[in-house]
Design goal:
The complex is a heterodimer of chains A (129) and B (96). Chain A is an alpha+beta fold and 129 residues long. Helices cover 48% and strands 36% of the residues of chain A. In chain A, strands 2-3-1-4 form a four-stranded antiparallel beta sheet, with helices on one face.
C-alpha cells in the first residue's frame, strides 16, 4: 500500500521569481534550464505561465522587480525536493513556492486555464480586427 | 394632571438631534465562500485577497469579515503565500 502511495504522481504548482538583472535571453535560459531539470526528473508539465517582469510588493535582495514564472506539474513527491534544492542553489532565483494542489485547487486551475486561453483568443481577435 | 405628565416626560426623555443619527444597521454576516460556493482560494490573486486584509496589510479577523472557520484558515494560508511571493506586502501603510 505504502509503495503504491509513493508512486502515485500528484499535481503541484511551483512558482519562482527570477532577478530582473538578467537579460531576456538569460531569463529564457534560466526557465529552460528548469524545464530541462523537470524533464530529467520525469515530471510532466501540465501548464505553464509566464507573468513577465512584475513589481514586488517589497524589496528582495535590493530588487524592486522580478520575473515571475509558474509551472503546474504532475510529479512524484520525491522529485519536488530536488527541484527545491535546485531553486535554493540558484542565485538567479529570488523566491520560490511549491504547493500541492488538492481537488478543489485542480478544478480552479482548470477554470483559470480556460479563462486565460479565452482571453488569449480574444486578444488575437482584437489584433486581427 | 394625568393628561399633562406623560407629555412632559416624553419631552425630557427624548434627545433631539439636528440631523437624524445614522444607526448602524446590524446586517447579517455571512461567509462569502459558502455563499458563492468557492472551494478554493487562490494565492495568486492579491486583488481579491486585499478584501481580507486591513490597510496595514494585517489579516482581518473572522468577527469582522464573517468568514467561516473552514475558509478563514484557507484565507490566511493564501494571504501568507501571497506575501511570500511578494505579491502582497507584509507591512504596509495605507493599502486601501
Amino acid at each position: 500500500m505504502r509503495q503504491n502511495k509513493k508512486q502515485m504522481p500528484k499535481q503541484y504548482e511551483t512558482m519562482f521569481i527570477l532577478t530582473p538583472v538578467l537579460s531576456d535571453e538569460q531569463t529564457k535560459e534560466a526557465v529552460n534550464s528548469y524545464k530541462k531539470l523537470l524533464k530529467e526528473l520525469n515530471v510532466k508539465i501540465v501548464h505553464e505561465e509566464s507573468w513577465g517582469l512584475k513589481k514586488l510588493a517589497y524589496s528582495i535582495k535590493n530588487k524592486n522587480t522580478g520575473y515571475y514564472h509558474l509551472f503546474q506539474i504532475e510529479a512524484p513527491g520525491e522529485s519536488i525536493a530536488q527541484v527545491e534544492i535546485a531553486y535554493k542553489r540558484d542565485e538567479r532565483v529570488l523566491r520560490y513556492l511549491t504547493i500541492h494542489l488538492d481537488k478543489y485547487a485542480l478544478a480552479y486551475a482548470e477554470r483559470r486555464k480556460a479563462k486565460l486561453s479565452n482571453k488569449k483568443i480574444e486578444r488575437k481577435e482584437e489584433v486581427t480586427a | 394632571m394625568a393628561t399633562t405628565t406623560p407629555a412632559v416626560s416624553t419631552d425630557k426623555g427624548e434627545i433631539r438631534y439636528l440631523n437624524p443619527p445614522v444607526l448602524e444597521v446590524d446586517r447579517e454576516k455571512y461567509c462569502r465562500f459558502k455563499k458563492m460556493r468557492m472551494k478554493h482560494i487562490d494565492y495568486k490573486d492579491p486583488a481579491f485577497l486585499l478584501r481580507f486584509v486591513n490597510d496595514q496589510g494585517k489579516i482581518l479577523p473572522r468577527r469582522l469579515t464573517g468568514t467561516s472557520v473552514k475558509y478563514q484558515r484557507k484565507v490566511s494560508q493564501a494571504v501568507k503565500r501571497c506575501r511570500h511571493l511578494a505579491l502582497m506586502p507584509f507591512v504596509a501603510d495605507g493599502l486601501k
